[in-house]
Amino acid sequence: MKKYDVYLFDFDGTLVDSYESLRIVFEEAYGKVNTVVPEGYTLRLMRVPLYVGYEELKAPQDEESKKLFGSEIIRLLDEPEVLLATRIYDDVKETLKELHNQGKKLGIISSNNRKHIYEVMKFLDIDETLFDVVVGNQESKKHKPNPDPILKGLEALGIGKENVCYVGDGLDDMRCAINAGVDPILVDRRNEYTNEYDVIIKNISELL
After folding, report:
1. How far apart are CA 183 and CA 157, in angstroms?
2. What is the architecture, at CATH level 2, of domain 6-17+87-207?
3. pTM of this structure
């Protein structure tokens, strides 16, 4: 596999298994605005901007409901039961440490809340000093597949697009990478994809 100078990562579904934790968050938050999350829809909600999923589920569009929903999402993210339901993939810590030891720059580019990302890393004992940049959903006005989140990360690093890859588990991650002009790497932990992109890996240890 090609070696890069900069490895940017999606967070949920890529570095951490947050399916069960976000299922709890989404079901409770949508319940507050009288909206049901269909069985199996959590994965879709994890991979699109928050209010894209909100519109898809035809949740109430008045500002009061949207405000309530947003505040519930923020409140629930750091609830103990939610953190306890979050897992780290087995290959993550060693891979990140090895890339760091090789002198690579590492970053997280996520649609999740930056504060919550740090809370999860602390809970799972992921060394946050391994990362040179963390971009969440409040650091970028536009969201994946728009290139803005990755471009914000590159700007913070003070580097160009050369020899940079973005590793994610969803197609919007890949579109975001392509739109930003960096190489997309699709990590397919759930065996969902076939030949969508040139580089598909089953776990991030393959980056080594």
Report:
1. 17
2. 3-Layer(aba) Sandwich (3.40)
3. 0.91
Tokens of 165: 């890859």
Q: Report the alpha-carbon distance of residue 206 to residue 200 in Å, rounded.
A: 10
Instruction: Say whether the peptide bond before residue 145 is cis (omega within 30 degrees of 0).
Output: yes
Q: Give the number of residues written for the chain.
A: 208
Selection from 174, 205, 51 nearest residue 109 by Cα: 174
Chain-centroid distance, C-alpha 49: 10
Token pair 């799972």: residue: 124
Burial (CB count <10 Å: 0-12, 13-18, 19+), residue 23: buried
Task: List the pLDDT tens digit at each of the 208 positions of the chain.
Answer: 899 999 999 999 999 999 999 999 999 999 999 999 999 999 999 988 889 999 999 999 999 999 999 999 999 988 999 999 999 999 999 999 999 999 999 999 999 989 999 999 999 999 999 999 999 988 988 989 999 999 999 999 999 999 999 999 999 999 999 999 999 999 998 888 877 667 899 999 999 9
Cα-based distances in Å from 43 to 77, 148, 190? 16, 23, 11
Q: What's the Rg (C-alpha) of the chain?
A: 17
Q: Provide DSSP, 169-192.
A: SSHHHHHHHHHHTSEEEEE-TT--
Q: How far apart are CA 180 and CA 149, in angstroms?
A: 9
The two three-digit tokens of residue 191, written as one number:
């065996």
